[in-house]
Amino acid sequence: MGHPAEHRLILRQEVLERLIANAPLADILTLIARGVEEERPALFASIQLRDPAGKHLRNGAAPSVPDFYTQAIDGIAIGEGVGSCGTAAARRERVVVADIASHPFWADFRELAARAGFAACWSEPICDSAGHLLGTFALYSRTSLEPDATDLELIQQAAQLAALAIEKSRAEEQLRLASSVFKSSSEAITVTDENNRIIAVNPAFTRVTGYTAQEVVGQDPKILASGRQGKSFYQTMWQALNESGQWQGEIWNRRKNGEMYAEWLSINAIRDESGKIIRRIAMFSDLTERKKAEEVIWQQTNYDQLTGLPNRRLFGDRLHQELRRAQREHRSLAVMFIDLDRFREVNEAHGHDIGDGLLVEAARRILSAVRETDTVSRFSGDEFIVALPLPPSTEPELVERVAQTVLQRIAEPFAIGSEHAFLSASIGIALYPSDATDVDSLMKCVDQALNAAKASGTNHYGWFMPELQAAARVRRQLIRDLRGALATGQLEVHFQPVVETATEQVTKAEALLRWRHPEHGMISPAQFIPLAEEVGVIVEIGDWVFREVVWQIKRWRAAGHAIQIAINKSPRQFVAGNSQQEWIDYMRELDVPPESLVIEITEGLLLDGRSEVTSKLLAFREAGVKIAIDDFGTGYSALSYLQKFSVDFLKIDRSFINDLTTDQKDRALADAIVVMAQKLGLKVIAEGVETQAQRDHLAEVGCDYIQGWYYGKAVPATEFEASFLKRG
Predict the structure, then answer these.
(1) Measuring CA to CA, which residue among 23, 24, 71, 22 is closest to residue 46?
(2) What pLDDT score does 380 carry?
(3) Radius of gyration of the chain (CA)
(4) pLDDT value of residue 463
(5) Per residue in 32-61, pLDDT tens?
(6) Do residues 587 and 597 make contact, with C-beta atoms less than 8 angstroms apart?
(7) Cα dihedral value 28, 31, 32, 37, nearest 10
(8) Is 196 in the same domain as 337?
(9) Which of 192, 194, 641, 725 is the S-S candidate for 606 at Cβ 3.0 to 4.6 Å?
């Protein structure tokens, strides 16, 4: 044997030659083990490889170690104290055991080692260039022995040489697998270079697009562009690709024959060690047939095949949505039930084909009489139904004008060949919330109103409540009274407890405005707050509520109650005046910590692009005031704005909580909001909790705070303090 350095150089050259020749990994590892044994004939080499799960070591090469020994240690666990190799793998560092007979690491393997005649074992972890464990390289001695510097250098170099072989083998395996996937994938794949030029496509690409590899290599992928997406679409796509290196979505492209098709496209960037993008891999699948089938099924399920109007099912869904929106925005909603008078007579006299034509024309006329924001549905037979969302300030006359227009349009002659047919209509009208507050009740009301209209004769409309004019007079009276309610002390601030789920302690409260009218008693906030916004007194009232809340915080803090209070601030308050600085100065004047106040805003306010709104919101945030998004999940849910304004709390809207334990969709939405908030580092408050089952489910999914009648209603400050702040 020559000099060790010369011997190792020869061994390294032989290993590299085997690697270039793509020799099997087992052969190369055996070559390394024998080469070490030739340099140190008194030692026995063993190479073990980490299994795919990363939990055990499997035999790689041990040409001189007895077979019974290699079989016994095949699959030993990676862990502290599991022999020399298991421990070295777990620690990612060299483990030297000079005396197996006395070392605790070998307690479970001492008899096995003695049978093989091994008295010492030195083990070196084999790691790749990134530091990930690949296996171990061990040297056994038949005598108790400490390694010298030459031995340590030998085992280290041998482990490095083994790592090189293992890495190359696995890289080649991955390349073979990737090549196989690339060629056999049912999804079309394109690979582009750093200049966005196509350098490779797979066979599925040709099947989908009609282009061969020879036709597209060197081309820009926009060769497939359909022109259906606008410039802004591609700007958004490239912004995402440049920022994150990823994009996925639905896109329309064009085949070689000119046919447009829909595809689901995923693009991922590959970067070099410096972070520069060197490749982009795009995968897409043809969605055209599936989209056509889905569109047909969806159309048949949700639309009337004769008139093309939403059917009863889709109208029910939309009415639920409109009702929820009306609840959130404190608006009214009108439902109009239309029945064609004498249609059955015309249908029987002229036949069903003529009757179908009349229904199509009647649908067109009804559509022409309503707004684009209204929903018109063919309910059944000759019945149509319309949902009309109404702004807060809308008078009943608007609904009446629509009803009169519908009656006039239906009364116009219908052409039947050279003849004319004359129809009329009866219309029933019901209103949310004055007539009913849920869909089923509202439908019953409008059905009764239709019956009443038909009982009055043809070509009539009728309201469910004949006292509608009286209700309008009450509304006008409330507007007049509201202007003086603050000055006469009719307004009160009540506080509803917010309970920390983990501790069951009241740590927060929401300040809620109440109006105690001298004649009508307590007026619902859903009734008078929209009026306050409409007549412009909401800013004055909001400032008063703020001062009352801050004084109450100061009093409670003086009594030892460090509670956090939330107040609602409407979009109108953000637009009008400069209240944010006045509020901040007032809190400083009273020495009230800004973090003890939470400003609750709506999701829509986050999307308000006006600079004054943004600056005022940021002023509160920079002063230390906390920000909560009220009724989260019912509006725009602009997630990027949650980070922009450093929102602290999300409040799950009560509409999701009401049916939390019975409606799977509402439960899934509520759970998703909690999970999303946790990922964003936000706290979640669930409002409208009324039952133990609702509370328990929210606690189980990790909701931070609970608010609702289950713990308590909103009460005056003195009652709140007595009932909630002095507990336990």
Answers:
(1) 71
(2) 84
(3) 38
(4) 83
(5) 999 899 888 999 999 999 998 889 999 999
(6) yes
(7) 160
(8) no
(9) 641
| 473 found inside a domain | no
* 552-559 own/partner pairs: CB under 8 Å, 24+ apart: 552/493, 552/495, 552/511, 552/717, 553/592, 553/596, 553/597, 554/590, 554/591, 554/592, 556/721, 556/725, 557/592, 557/596, 559/721, 559/725
The two beta strands, 491-500 and 505-517, are antiparallel
Question: What is the rounded distance in angstroms from the CA atom of residue 35 to the CA atom of residue 158?
Answer: 9
Confidence of residue 509 (pLDDT cuts 50, 70, 90): very high
Q: Is the pLDDT score of 418 beyond 80? A: no
Q: Is 40 a member of any domain?
A: yes
412 and 282 inside one domain = no
CA 352, 356, 361, 362 torsion: positive or negative? positive
Which tokens sit at 435?
């007539």
Choosing from 234, 268, 291, the residue where a domain stops is 291
Element holding 616 (H helix, E strand): helix 611-623
pLDDT, residue 468, reads 44
Rounded to two decimals, the pTM is: 0.42
Note the pLDDT of residue 366: 92
Q: Is the separation of the CB atoms in 594 and 625 below 8 Å? A: yes
Same domain? 126 vs 218: no
Q: What angle do CA 273, 275, 280 make, to 5 degrees?
A: 100
- pLDDT for the residue numbered 381: 85
Looking at the DSSP bridge assignments, the partners of residue 384 are 338, 378
Distance CA 538, CA 569 (A): 9
One domain for residues 396 and 315: yes
Which CATH number fits the domain that encloses residue 130? 3.30.450.40
Distance CA 253, CA 351 (A): 47
CATH of the domain at 413: 3.30.70.270
Within-domain flag for 500? yes
Retrieve residue 88's tokens: 């070295």
Given a cut of 70, is residue 636 above it in pLDDT? Answer: no
Question: Taking the alpha carbons of 673, 675, 681, 683 in that order, is the dihedral positive or negative?
Answer: positive
User: Do 386 and 431 fall within a single domain?
Assistant: yes
* Length of the chain, in residues: 728
Which uninterrupted H or E stretch holds 57?
strand 56-61
Range of the domain at 97: 4-180
Residue 189 confidence (pLDDT)? 86
Cα–Cα distance for residue pair 644/617, rounded to 1 Å: 11
Q: In this predicted structure, what is the pLDDT of residue 174?
A: 65
What digits encode the pLDDT tens for the residues 450-473?
Answer: 877 876 777 888 888 655 445 545
455 vs 384, higher pLDDT: 384
What is the pLDDT at residue 728? 38
Domain of 277: which CATH number? Answer: 3.30.450.20
Q: Does 390 share its domain with 432?
A: yes
Q: Hey, what are 524's tokens?
A: 């619902």
Task: Tell me if 482 sits within 8 A of 531, measured CB to CB.
Answer: yes
Residue 152 has pLDDT above 70, yes or no: yes
Peptide bond into 433 cis (omega under 30): yes
- Say yes or no: 152 and 104 in one domain: yes
d(CA 54, CA 89): 10
Q: Residue 662 — pLDDT band, cuts 50, 70, 90? A: confident
> Which residues, 6 or more positions from 406, have their beta carbon under 8 angstroms from its beta carbon?
336, 338, 365, 366, 369, 370, 425, 427
**Confidence at residue 708, expressed as pLDDT on a 0 to 100 scale:** 92
Provide the number of structural domains found in the chain: 4
Is residue 692 domain-resident? yes
| Residue 393 sits in the same domain as residue 277 | no
